[in-house]
Design goal:
The protein is mainly α and 109 residues long. The two termini are 32 Å apart. The protein has one domain. Helices cover 69% and strands 0% of the residues.
Length: 109
């Protein structure tokens, strides 16, 4: 099984990156670079399969609908933190990877 980072760990790495970038190029340039960055966050069915169905702890903590609510809430909170820490509020969008891939695969038929 592939090892993944929690959203909290990813946010910590993002903060570390910003600090290192600030040290290298200064606050103003770091802000410019981050504000023009492109960020991808993917949370979805894989998170449910890997964390709910394969880890008994989650099934003891949540029923399936409650776990789905938890995953959605986590994704929303993660997104809010990224927006707040990257000056992306003016140009930020969310799309469905599953739908995007499905559309791209079947549009070439």
């Amino acid at each position: 099984m592939q090892t993944t980072l929690s959203s909290d760990d990813q946010l910590e790495l993002f903060q570390d990156y910003k600090q290192k970038l600030t040290t290298l190029v200064g606050e103003k340039e770091m802000t410019r670079v981050i504000s023009q960055g492109v960020f991808f966050t993917v949370m979805g069915s894989n998170d449910i399969v890997n964390n709910y169905f394969t880890l008994p702890l989650r099934r003891h903590q949540y029923d399936l609908p409650s776990y789905v609510d938890f995953v959605v809430s986590s994704a929303i909170n993660f997104t809010k933190v990224i927006i707040a820490n990257s000056n992306l509020s003016d140009h930020f969008s969310i799309f469905s990877i599953t739908f995007f891939i499905f559309t791209k695969v079947f549009s070439h038929s």
